[in-house]
Amino acid sequence: MPIKKKVLVTGGAGFIGSNLVRMLCDAGYAVLVLDDLSSGFRRLVDARAEFLEGSIADGAMLPKALSSVEAVFHLAATSTITYSMKNPRVYFENNFMGGIYLLEAMRKTGVKKIVYASSAASYDGKKRTPIAESDPLGPINPYGASKLAFEHAMSAYSHSFGMEGTALRFFNVYGPGDEQPDTTRAIPMWLKAALAKKPVPYYWKGKQKRDYIFVEDVARAMMLAEEKGRDGFRVYNIGSGKGMWMIDILKKIEKLLGYQLVLKDLGERHGDPKYAIADTRKIQKEIGWKPEVNLEEGLRQTIDYYRQHLGKL
């Protein structure tokens, strides 16, 4: 297969990044991964990709990483909402200033295209179903604020220096490869507990409505955003477009596992919006993306992954 182009994936040893790297390699891209392994794993990186251990804050390493690269997929970030409430400064240093170092290095090396893993946490958290890209912004936690701040930087670099920037606001991403230690993300936390026959922790009595999107659909959206990009700065929601109460997702997991779960109610969790459902009409219209894996099939694949890897996590 002829090589399409060389791309850089920051955070390519993480959950979403490693799935993206595999799919890029499958599609014939030459892929360089830059990851400091603070939350990613070297073993998750596809063997066909080149790997460079380091940080986007390393001014000496970035020019090397960007050499002969035509586009950047930027996923390197500190990404747990709960921890952002405890140490917000780290989130702004990593997610905002780290991104500025990357944009500056791109500007100086002439790399003009970036696709960014942003977040639905950029929105204001008020009851609005579904959420469109034009709806009010106003993050209710430091993680969301750090992600939105970098979107503004991308817009500025696009207008000032001619970069082509696409920010994809991910809703709740799940699937194989999510091996974050001490995870607070619901589905991996639930599956690890359920498969170990331990009590399954949940918040708000499961009365939050969420939009879950399978990781391969997310990676495909990033690839399409790069392939069908155009001048300027654009923002798209990435979700299934369907909301489900968290308690009903637990019941679906219980049905797929075939045994009753013991649930442990942890009460309320500060910084959580009650509703988060994506309006995906804009990306469907402009670049032709829509999700292909429904929740039941995605959960089945995710359960199979954790069954195979539980003892290693």
Q: Could you state the order of secondary-structure elements as H and E?
A: EHEEHEHHEHEEHEEEHEEHEEHH
Helix content: 25-40%
Uncertain spans: none
Number of strands: 14
Task: Give a brief description.
With 313 residues, this protein is an alpha/beta fold. It has helices spanning 15-26, 61-66, 81-86, 88-109, 142-161, 186-195, 215-227, 246-257, 281-287, 295-309; strands at residues 6-10, 30-35, 50-53, 71-74, 113-119, 164-170, 172-174, 200-202, 209-210, 212-214, 233-238, 244-245, 263-265, 275-276.
Description:
- InterPro entries: Epimerase_deHydtase (IPR001509), NAD(P)-bd_dom_sf (IPR036291).
- Belongs to the NAD(P)-dependent epimerase/dehydratase family.
- Residues 7-239 form the NAD-dependent epimerase/dehydratase domain.
- This is NAD-dependent epimerase/dehydratase domain-containing protein.
- The protein is α/β, with parallel strands linked by helices.
- The protein has a domain at 6-174 and 212-240 and 279-292: Rossmann fold (3-Layer(aba) Sandwich).
- Helix content is 39%, strand content 18%.
- The protein contains ten helices and 14 strands.
- It has a seven-stranded parallel β-sheet with strand order 3-2-1-4-5-6-11, with helices on both faces. The protein has a three-stranded mixed β-sheet with strand order 12-9-14.
- α1 (15-26) packs across α7 (215-227), α4 (88-109) runs parallel beside α5 (142-161) and α6 (186-195) crosses α10 (295-309).
- The longest helix is centred in the N-terminal third of the chain and has 22 residues, at 88-109.
- The protein is globular and about 55 Å long.
